[in-house]
Structure formats: structure tokens, C-alpha cells
Design goal:
The chain has three helices and five strands. It has a five-stranded antiparallel beta sheet with strand order 1-2-3-5-4, covered by helices on one side. The longest helix is centred in the middle third of the chain and has 16 residues. It binds adenosine-5'-triphosphate (ATP). The site of adenosine-5'-triphosphate has 14 residues, from strand 1 and strand 3. Keywords: ATP-binding, Nucleotide-binding.
Length: 113
């Protein structure tokens, strides 16, 4: 899927996220979790159980997961517009978001949570 983990999209608190494709065409983001602690595994299971049940337009979809105990990965649909953090901080260039837009994003995020 990730072509041997060729392209890293970023890194969060739980692992590195790689770009990949499903069936060679559907773009994906594959989060490979750091070595699993019991705390990490609990978080992984909670994320899988919640996101496989809950679908909302403001939430990224979980497409699948890998649970081999020592190798854990979460597979999400790929968000092509980048990180919200970068949009809010103006790092992506382009126009600065207005306060009205920021407020709408906050409300939309709250609706998805
Ligand atoms: N579904 C996705 N589509 C595209 N890029 C993604 C996706 N998920 C994560 N990324 C990229 O990988 C980076 C790390 O994401 P990740 O969710 O691990 O960290 P985070 O947003 O800091 O959250 P957390 O606090 O859960 O670790 C993001 O900043 C983003 O650039």
C-alpha cells in the first residue's frame, strides 16, 4: 500500500503517517503506530471501535487497520487539503483565514466530535 513506506506525510503523537494507495488508485494515509505499549494498544482499539461505527462528514473515515500486536496501523482516507494546523497558522500560504471562517471550522469540528 505505501510502496515500502516511501512517502511520509507527517508525524503525530502516536506514530508516523505515510501516503499510500488502495488497489493502486484510492489515496490513503497509513498511520503506523510506535511500538505498542498497553496504553498505546488501548488507544488503538478505542480509535478503531469508534471510527468503524461513527461516520460523519466532518470526521476522516477509517478505511481499515492492521492489528498484529507488535505491528499496529490505522488506515484513513487521504485528506488532500493538508493539515488544519497549517491553515490556521498561515503556513500553507494563500490568504489568511478570517475569524468568521475560523469560527465555522471550530463549530464544524465540534459537530464531528
Ligand atoms: N488522513 C490524512 N490525510 C492526509 N494527511 C494526514 C492524514 N492523517 C494525518 N496526516 C498527516 O500526518 C500528520 C500527523 O498526523 P497525526 O494524526 O498522527 O498527528 P496529530 O494531528 O498531531 O494528532 P495526534 O495528537 O493524534 O498525534 C498530520 O499533521 C498530517 O500532515
Amino acid at each position: 500500500m505505501t510502496n515500502n513506506f516511501k512517502r511520509a506525510l507527517g508525524e503525530g503523537g502516536f506514530g508516523v503517517v505515510y501516503h499510500g494507495y488502495l488497489n493502486g488508485s484510492q489515496p490513503l494515509a497509513v498511520k503506523v503506530l510506535y511500538e505498542s505499549s498497553s496504553q498505546g494498544y488501548k488507544h488503538f482499539k478505542a480509535e478503531v471501535e469508534l471510527l468503524l461505527r461513527v461516520h460523519h462528514i466532518n470526521l476522516v473515515n477509517l478505511v481499515g487497520y492492521c492489528d498484529e500486536r507488535d505491528h499496529l496501523a490505522l488506515i484513513y482516507e487521504y485528506m488532500c487539503n493538508g493539515d488544519l494546523k497549517d491553515h490556521l497558522s498561515g503556513k500553507r500560504g494563500g490568504s489568511v483565514l478570517s475569524w468568521t471562517t475560523r469560527l465555522r471550522i471550530a463549530v464544524d469540528a465540534a459537530l464531528g466530535s
